[in-house]
Amino acid sequence: MPEDTSKLIASGLAMRYGRRVLFHDLSFEVKPGSPLAITGRNGSGKSTLLKILAGVLDPIDGNVSLVDQGREIDGEERPHMVGFVAPYLQLYGPFSARENLEFLVQARRLKDGTNKINEVLERVGLLDRADDYLSTFSTGMHQRLRIAAALLHDPPLLLLDEPSATLDESGRELAESLVGMNDKIVVVATNDPDEAALCAERLHLPD
Hints:
This protein is an alpha/beta fold. The protein has helices at 46-54, 97-108, 113-123, 139-151, 169-179, 193-197; strands at residues 7-17, 20-30, 36-39, 61-68, 71-73, 82-85, 157-161, 185-189, 201-204. The protein is built from 6 helices and 9 strands; from the N terminus they run E-E-E-H-E-E-E-H-H-H-E-H-E-H-E. It has a 5-stranded parallel β-sheet. It has a 4-stranded antiparallel β-sheet with strand order 2-1-4-5, with helices on one face.
């Protein structure tokens, strides 16, 4: 796939909360195989920027464009083309890992759901715990399930907010493998120097 057929383009993005300006006039482009690390102190706007890129939060100025294999994705469709990983994303505690993913299969109207669920659970190392309730899971296992959910629909865009948070060494290797997915557009918000070093480009948000 030629690299210019898929890309994420941010133009002139600005965001503020009340009188506090998080960032302004941010412009960048991300292509498959060239992941972008977004760095900055806590509160600098890293998570907010990822939500804007995902299409779930509107900036006060600027725009975001996602092109997948030559097709520009409509703004309303963009959230469905994103795999989002963040430690603050809620999972359904009374359900099992499999039931959490089955809910997403139905919501996203995915075909061949059972095979997809087994595939992503195996990838994140949870297949043997697929039918256990989340109340028995550690925080690291919750993060692994968030990664499985992000990969379930094979999205062209991966947005990773502190993806290694709460993970053990093997889990960190899993998170690093996401950054290295050359067929995906990848943006990582992180203050982990090792995680940022995996990315080809870096955008630092000032205080």
